[in-house]
Amino acid sequence: MKTFGQIFCFLILTTLLIGCSDDDNNDLGLLLNQASVRVLHASPDAPNVDVLVDDQVVLSNVSYKQASEFLSVFAGTRNIKVNAAGTSTTVIDANLNLAFQSFTTVIATNFLAQIEPLVLPDENTPPSGNILKIRVVHSAPSAPPVDVYVTAPGADIITATPTLSGVAFLGFSDFLEIPEDDYQIRVTAAGFKDPVFDSGTVTLDAGSILTAVAVDATGGASPISLVVLTNDPTTPFIEIDDNRARLRAVHASPDAPNVDILVDNAIVLSDVAFTEFLDYTAVPAGDRNIKVNATGTANSVIDVTVPLAGGTNYTVLAVNFVASIEPLLLVDNTTTPTPGNAKVRVVHASPDAPNVDVLVDDTIVLTNVAFKEFSDYLEVPAGARNFKVNATGTASTVIDVTPTLVDGGIYTVVALNTLTNIEPLLLLDN
């Protein structure tokens, strides 16, 4: 399928060829002198951006992890600017020497305060037969140097040699030629074998030319995700999140003994006391069995199987008195709040407390919240925020705390324990 730009150029060329002056023939020469460039927004804390070539906007309002198809521009020295969307505030200003018929990838990378262009020469000639080309780029400023394993699904990487070793931030590989097949892409910290990213099974098609760019993740089980740039103008990029889920468990039953927490019959945390919690642990996506046992025994007070989606964070709380103990499963939303704000969710986990109202800086933001109910995430200004929990419709305050919320922080506040001893538990969700 031809792009609008290709059709437009064809119409101009046709007009010029029908009958033009010598000056117009010079314009024809310029039109034939084309190069191709594409852009990926990979700066995790930067706003949406516009991209300009020679001060003309060619891409508007590009969000984090979005990429363009290849755009045709005149060959030669071209000025590329990246501006905050809708403004003249330039965060990248670079001159690129684009050769005739060349292909170039420009990645706007690093944190906003250090944002810079990573310019990569590209390829656009598809391999023949059942072969595809793939290269890897480290564009995740929060991540250390990494090893990359591209293997058959389920292959053991413990004794395997990395496909790529010690790739540092801003580093990238040559294009590798591999057969069309199903693969599993795993990323570890350099020199280690425990994956920090696991794609699960992905199908890579013959004829593809792929650039897999590791970027800072915005949620899920991994600190990174992959944005895969393609040679298909109809689908110029695909995001591959970590295929695992992340699970956090909280002991919120006030009269239950210390417990062990098991996932698929394997103990992941032992001797957990009331108000203690298991921080996020990566587990395979799918139906997972969760047991809560009295510590050191096979006596399960909770035994439940829950479906966990890959790339999603969950919190499971053991709530209620031990005679009626039950799981409360929450899906955690780790999308970044708007700059200057934090996000807060409130959970009512006090089994004998009445319905409550929640106030932030003495303004009611939630009302009539019952036991086991929880709010959506609320955006509030970062900084010291006062939270009160009152019996619904009254000024009777059972919790009064003033935590300092960091800019971009995501929190869950659990009201737990019995009414006479009710207390807050503040959890960091990101």
Characteristics:
four-stranded mixed sheet; disordered N terminus; Immunoglobulin-like; five-stranded mixed sheet; 52% strand; 2 helices; 6% helix; single chain; mainly beta; 4 domains; 430 residues
Written account of the structure:
A five-stranded mixed beta sheet has the order 12-9-15-16-17, with no helix packed on it. The protein is mainly beta. The chain contains two helices and 35 strands. Strand 34 and strand 35 form a beta hairpin. Helix 1 packs antiparallel against helix 2. It is 6% helix and 52% strand. The N terminus is likely disordered. The chain folds into four domains: 90 residues, Immunoglobulin-like, CATH 2.60.40; 119 residues, Immunoglobulin-like, CATH 2.60.40; 89 residues, Immunoglobulin-like (Sandwich); 95 residues, Sandwich (Immunoglobulin-like). It is flat and about 80 Å long.
Secondary-structure map with pairings?
Elements: H1 4-18, H2 22-32, E1 34-42, E2 49-53, E3 56-62, E4 71-74, E5 76-84, E6 90-98, E7 103-109, E8 116-121, E9 131-138, E10 146-151, E11 164-167, E12 176-179, E13 181-189, E14 195-204, E15 209-216, E16 224-229, E17 237-240, E18 245-251, E19 259-263, E20 266-272, E21 277-283, E22 286-294, E23 300-308, E24 313-319, E25 326-332, E26 341-349, E27 356-360, E28 363-369, E29 378-381, E30 383-384, E31 387-391, E32 397-401, E33 404-405, E34 410-416, E35 423-428
Parallel strand pairs: 1-7, 9-15, 18-24, 26-34
Antiparallel strand pairs: 1-4, 2-3, 2-5, 5-6, 7-8, 9-12, 10-11, 10-13, 13-14, 15-16, 16-17, 18-21, 19-20, 19-22, 22-23, 24-25, 26-29, 27-28, 27-31, 30-33, 31-32, 34-35
Helix pairs in contact: 1-2
